[in-house]
Structures are given as structure tokens and as C-alpha cells.
């Protein structure tokens, strides 16, 4: 009888242990099925501990979801933030010094990417940009990752930001198990966007100024110009109460245009984009917007751009409607701030009470682990 009782006890204990281990394994390996912004149905590990981001500037969006430490689960990235937005990189580095040793894999769509190293790290999810979907498909990287048990998820803050920002943030919220944070930011984002939309609806088409966007103005000195079509910043101009010059001229995302075409049309407003590219290209004459920018230098750089040969004859320069804005707004969920600046430049009376500076500060106070500093947009001072 005693032996039988002991046997039953051991069996019960073994069964309990087996159930416990099995349950723990299931809990650790819980997966969810999501549809990414490319329309792909993906089975992905919920709350992954190790992710790789195909572009470093995805941190802009991850930060509003993983608010305490957006780098906590990132084991590798492309070093574009380090090169092209060093102000932001240093801001995060000060708060999270461990990112100095973060592995850089380069572009996941090129031969430089070390797939073996990505897999060896135990990566569970790789996040990629929608704009590179075709490259990823052609390279076969998606299939190779899937064969290794690594999910790929596409997000978008660049191709079609006004439509894909909320779905992308919600997607990250589900995968990271941070849905409350994703919901809070999505609500805030939509509130800020509707502040613009509700007023733009009142503006007749004929009262909407033609705006030329000069992408990366001065990045390469004496080279002009790249601009956006009815996408990205071009679309943001259209939705902020203007008529984007590129939207009226060509289909597609972005293209090169001649100075002659710009001078011939003499757009009412000109908006360049800039960032701290001085480390990537020491010769740049761009406006060095970012967390370390200073107002005096911004004005100095704007003056230099407006003084390029022939530009001083343009109406936008003469009338003080020559502006510039932080280039990285074009690839982040913070673009509503740029839209508020656009709206004020185009329709100052209608948007008199809108304060993009206050919005930028509020964004940092509510959703980001870093504090607000620097300069992110500016206008030419024709009286100075």
C-alpha cells in the first residue's frame, strides 16, 4: 500500500512537472497572427525579446510604443540614425549608453547584410520598411528569414504616412504587448491631425498656395533639386492646406527637377528640408536641424540657401515665405508637427492659435524617453 501511494505520488509529481514545463514553454513561445501594412499575414512571437530593425530611424516610432527603453529588445540595426541624425543618436545614447555597442548590419536588402549573424543572435522579428518591400522580395531575404524561424514585419511612416502611421503603431503595440501605449499615441496623433483637417476643409482650392518642397536642400552644395510628388511631404503639404508643386507636375514618390522649371513657375512658398548632415557630409550647406541645433545657425544657413544664384528673385524669398523643416519628419510618426508648421506658414490667420513648438514639447513629455531641445523648423528673416 505504501509503495502504491509512493508510486502514485511520484507519477503525480512527474505529471505536474511535465505540465509546468510544457506550460512555461507555451507561454514563452506564444505567437499571434498579424497583418502588416504590406497586407502580409504573419505569425510572430508576442512580446519578443530580440528584434532587428532594417532602419535605425525606426526608433522614432518604436519609442512611442516601448516608451521606457525603445532599445531594450533591439539587438541589431542599420546605422542610418548614427550617420544622418547624430543629434538624435547622441540624445538616446546619453539616456541609454548601452546602444554604443549595438550591432550594425547595414541594409537588409543588400549583400552587406549578415543573415547568419542575425540568426545567431536569436532574433525573433525583423522590422522592415514598406518602401523596400519589392527589394526584400527580390532578394529572397523574407523567405530565408522564415526558413530560420524569424518573422518579417513591414511598417510604414514614409510611403503613405497619413494612412499607415496608426496601423503601423498599432501593429507594434500588438507585437510588443504594449497596446495601451500604442492606443494612447494613436489617439493623440489623430487628435493632432484632425486639428488640421477640420480647418483645411474650409479653404477653397484657389486659396491654397502652391508650395515647392526642396528635399535635402543643400545636402550636396550647388546641386538642386529633388522634390516630392503626391506622397510623403508632398502629400502632407496638400493635406495642410496647400498645393504641392510636385503633385501638380508628376506621378510618383520623388524626382529631380531643374532650376529652370522652379524659376519659371515661381511658387508662392518654398520649404526645404534639413538635418545635421555635417558629419556624413562635412561640405553640406543644409540647415542642420535637430536636438543640438541653434536658432542663430539655422538663420545663417537659411540665408545662405536663399542667396544661391537666382533664388533671390523668387517671390517666396522676397516675401519671406522661404522656410525649412527637419528632414526626418518625412520618416516618423511625428510628421503632424511638420503639418502644423506648414499650415501656419500657408494660412497664418486660420492657424494662428496652433503652436507646433508646444506640440513638439508635448510629444516628448507624454510619449518619449528623451527631453525636447534644439530647433526643428525655421523661416527666413527677410528683415535681418
TrEMBL record:
The keyword Signal applies. SUPFAM superfamilies: Helical backbone' metal receptor. It comes from the Bacteria. Residues 50-354 form the Fe/B12 periplasmic-binding domain. Keywords: Signal. PROSITE patterns: FE_B12_PBP. It holds the Pfam family Peripla_BP_2. InterPro entries: ABC_Transporter_SBP, ABC_transptr_periplasmic_BD. Residues 1-29 form the signal peptide. The keyword rRNA-binding does not apply. CDD domains: TroA_f. PANTHER family: MOLYBDATE-BINDING PROTEIN MOLA, VITAMIN B12-BINDING PROTEIN. This is Iron complex transport system substrate-binding protein. It comes from Shimia sagamensis.
Amino acid at each position: 500500500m505504501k509503495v502504491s501511494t509512493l508510486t502514485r505520488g511520484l507519477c503525480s509529481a512527474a505529471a505536474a512537472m511535465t505540465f509546468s514545463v510544457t506550460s512555461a514553454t507555451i507561454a514563452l513561445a506564444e505567437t499571434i497572427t498579424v497583418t502588416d501594412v504590406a497586407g502580409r499575414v504573419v505569425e510572430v512571437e508576442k512580446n519578443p525579446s530580440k528584434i532587428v530593425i532594417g532602419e535605425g530611424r525606426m526608433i522614432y516610432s518604436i519609442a512611442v510604443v516601448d516608451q521606457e527603453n525603445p532599445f531594450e529588445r533591439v539587438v541589431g540595426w542599420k546605422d542610418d540614425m548614427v550617420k544622418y541624425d547624430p543629434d538624435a543618436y547622441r540624445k538616446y545614447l546619453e539616456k541609454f549608453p548601452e546602444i554604443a555597442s549595438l550591432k550594425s548590419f547595414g541594409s537588409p536588402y543588400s549583400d552587406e547584410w549578415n543573415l547568419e549573424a542575425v540568426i545567431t543572435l536569436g532574433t525573433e522579428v525583423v522590422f522592415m520598411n514598406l518602401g523596400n518591400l519589392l527589394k526584400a522580395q527580390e532578394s529572397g531575404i523574407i523567405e530565408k528569414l522564415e526558413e530560420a524561424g524569424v518573422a518579417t514585419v513591414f511598417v510604414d511612416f514614409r510611403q503613405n504616412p497619413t494612412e499607415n502611421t496608426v496601423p503601423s503603431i498599432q501593429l507594434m503595440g500588438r507585437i510588443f504587448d504594449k497596446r495601451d501605449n500604442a492606443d494612447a499615441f494613436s489617439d493623440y496623433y489623430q487628435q493632432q491631425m484632425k486639428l488640421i483637417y477640420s480647418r483645411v476643409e474650409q479653404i477653397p482650392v484657389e486659396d491654397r498656395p502652391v508650395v515647392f518642397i526642396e528635399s535635402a536642400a543643400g545636402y550636396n552644395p550647388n546641386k538642386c533639386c529633388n522634390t516630392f510628388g503626391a506622397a510623403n511631404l508632398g502629400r502632407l503639404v496638400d493635406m495642410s492646406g496647400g498645393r504641392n508643386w510636385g503633385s501638380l507636375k508628376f506621378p510618383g514618390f520623388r524626382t529631380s527637377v531643374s532650376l529652370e522649371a522652379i524659376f519659371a513657375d515661381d511658387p508662392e512658398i518654398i520649404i526645404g528640408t534639413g538635418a545635421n548632415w555635417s558629419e556624413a557630409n562635412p561640405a553640406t550647406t543644409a540647415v542642420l536641424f535637430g536636438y543640438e541645433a541653434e536658432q542663430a545657425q539655422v538663420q545663417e544657413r537659411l540665408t545662405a540657401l536663399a542667396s544661391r544664384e537666382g533664388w533671390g528673385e523668387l517671390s517666396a524669398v522676397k516675401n519671406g515665405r522661404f522656410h525649412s523643416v527637419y528632414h526626418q519628419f518625412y520618416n516618423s510618426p511625428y510628421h503632424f508637427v511638420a503639418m502644423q508648421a506648414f499650415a501656419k506658414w500657408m494660412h497664418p490667420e486660420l492657424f494662428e492659435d496652433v503652436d507646433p513648438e508646444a506640440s513638439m514639447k508635448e510629444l516628448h513629455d507624454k510619449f518619449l524617453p528623451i527631453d525636447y531641445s534644439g530647433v526643428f523648423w525655421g523661416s527666413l528673416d527677410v528683415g535681418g
